[in-house]
Design brief:
By secondary structure, the chain is mainly alpha-helical. The chain has helices at residues 13-19, 33-36, 49-59, 86-105, 113-135, 138-150, 163-172, 175-184; strands spanning 7-11, 63-66. It has a two-stranded antiparallel ribbon. The relative contact order is 0.13.
């Protein structure tokens, strides 16, 4: 079928990340091969796009966005996205924590740091949300928060990135809010 195609741009990848939530799935983007340079997916990581894509965006000097529907994802049981095995859950959360720590440790130009910080905050929120959704345990959530705090990733930055982020940040920062999130977020 013919796909309507409009686009906006160019802007830098850093500018885009500073003002928008990034969908990390690399299959949703087209990049010139030379932009990647020596950057590669980290072998063995679950959701390795979360680490790879923001770094690629920071390298982008000309980014164009489109709302064209050009990629369709088929959901299937047993996939990496639909796996509720406890060992898989532990692996996924541990890998996300590794990715967060790696992104936080990146040395980037000062003008790129706000863009990267937004991505880190967004991914940290997703990590906390997934901990709630997959574990449904206040003990597990509090351990997760303690670990994030030890790496300077918690509390979430007091930014108004999106309404969802703002509401989640406020809720996760209090004991009653955490209880509410545990009740509200379904497995």
């Amino acid at each position: 079928a013919e796909t309507p195609f409009t686009y906006d741009g160019p802007i830098t990848g850093s500018s885009y990340m500073r003002d928008n939530n990034l969908r990390a799935s690399a299959c949703g983007y087209l990049f010139e091969k030379t932009m990647a340079g020596q950057l590669r997916f980290t072998s063995g990581l679950l959701h390795e796009d979360e680490e790879f894509t923001p770094q690629l965006f920071l390298r982008s000097e000309r980014l164009y966005t489109t709302d064209a529907k050009a990629y369709y994802y088929r959901m299937r049981s047993g996939s990496i996205v639909n796996n509720d095995n406890p060992e898989h859950t532990r692996h996924l959360l541990a890998d996300t924590e590794r990715i967060l720590e790696h992104l936080q440790s990146l040395v980037v130009p000062e003008h790129d740091r706000p863009a990267l910080n937004r991505r880190i905050a967004q991914l940290t929120m997703d990590y906390l949300y997934n901990n709630i959704r997959l574990n449904h345990s206040l003990i597990s959530l509090n351990k997760c928060i303690k670990q994030l705090r030890s790496h300077g990733l918690y509390p979430l930055p007091d930014k108004d990135y999106t309404k969802k982020y703002t509401m989640f940040r406020k809720a996760i920062s209090t004991y009653l809010g955490r209880i509410g999130l545990l009740l509200f977020i379904k497995k």
